[in-house]
Design brief:
homodimer; about 200 residues; mainly alpha; Arc Repressor Mutant, subunit A; 9 helices; DNA-binding
Chain lengths: ~200, ~200
DNA sequence: TTTTAATGCGAGCTATTGCTCATATTTATA
DNA sequence: TATAAATATGAGCAATAGCTCGCATTAAAA
């Protein structure tokens, strides 16, 4: 029914092999979500694909949701890191180029494994954000928000709304393209770029 | 006794009460998806909320997926009908007004029950499209495709791509707004209108 | 080496889910 | 009214899920 108490850590890996186990579990979970969807996403299947036993799995994760939460969190943190890096390395260059690079990061993140991205999105909302996810998400949003704020662009709506919509429309286009089986990432980038720039009132150039 | 010994397609409602049962089941299924998500979405729960027994449920649906498929299909058909109606009643008026009306239809469809819309979307891809869904989806797409084709707009990309992206970005913005708890539909409409029109290279007016 | 802690294992318990079937009740038909 | 057809019921079955627990194995500490 209502989401249970938050997934709390069980054991922390101390030796190298256990860290590898944890990593294998998370990777297996991602692969199963990607290839089998929620149907095949069982703890037994995860353990099997990871090459470990269920018992080992439950030594590091208190329950199934904790695995999903760890997956979701690491996904967001990776995204946050990448976007911050891009932003940092483009501070001295025209904003248009930074936008291009950020779009490419976002598209890469979602486009190659569309089903995984979609299911992670779904699980995010089921699990809530009380496990560090909110902070990671905030980092991601802030990159774009700060970029827009520091720019001289005359935004079509208020700063937060504009930021949210830019993310949302890019996400929507990528999602549709991914599920549609498209493979041309450059073309996808161009379309999102067009959508974002025109939404912001900038010349598509 | 029974003429057929093999599993045959389920009954079609003949009497009025059975039609009501079918309707109650579909409505209950939608309500459960909306309020409980996939977790609470069990056949027993559906039957209970519909006020019928599981046995009755399985007289009209061969399995759980058939319920979901019926839900998905009726959802798409409703959308197709509404969009075709709007398109028909706006043939003599400026294309901008038609776009506005179509956006409103799409937003209404998704915004009031965002979780339901999201889960229906997910299930669509799990179930495939071999139950009449493809036709309904095609109807929806065709409304916008024909509108764009017959217009004098210089499209930013080819017709199909542009059509898909317009849907996708509107969908993305609505999805984010819905999950974000927004309630101002007019404001949402304005934002999507801005996104669509600028994507199409039309003045936001 | 011996001892202790960390890690790994997987059969199987408990709860739940999708679904059936024998039976009961309501409606249509003769 | 009598008979058949349609509809409704819900206890319970088979399958499967999440998860535990006693024990085996490996690595670190003494």
């Amino acid at each position: 029914m209502t989401p249970d108490t938050l997934p709390k850590p069980r054991k922390s890996p101390v030796q190298a092999r256990s860290a590898a186990t944890v990593e294998a579990i998370l990777e297996a979970a991602a692969r199963i979500l990607e290839s089998e969807g929620l149907d095949g996403y069982t703890t037994n299947a995860i353990a099997k694909r990871a090459g470990v036993s269920v018992g080992s799995l439950y030594q590091y994760f208190p329950n199934k949701d904790a695995i999903t939460a760890a997956l979701v969190l690491s996904d967001s943190e990776l995204m946050a890191t990448r976007m911050q890096e891009v932003r940092a390395s483009y501070t001295a260059r025209p904003i248009r180029e930074c936008i291009d690079a950020l779009i490419d990061v976002a598209v890469c993140h979602q486009f190659d494994r569309p089903m995984l991205a979609r299911l992670i999105d779904l699980e995010e909302h089921r699990l809530g954000q009380d496990f560090g996810l909110k902070a990671a998400k905030q980092k991601i949003v802030m990159v774009v928000r700060n970029l827009l704020e520091s720019s001289e662009i005359d935004l079509p709506f208020d700063l937060d709304t504009t930021t949210q919509d830019v993310f949302a429309l890019a996400h929507g286009i990528t999602d549709a393209a991914g599920l549609n089986g498209e493979t041309d990432r450059a073309h996808l980038n161009a379309r999102i770029r067009h959508a974002v720039l025109s939404y912001l009132g900038l010349p598509t150039s």
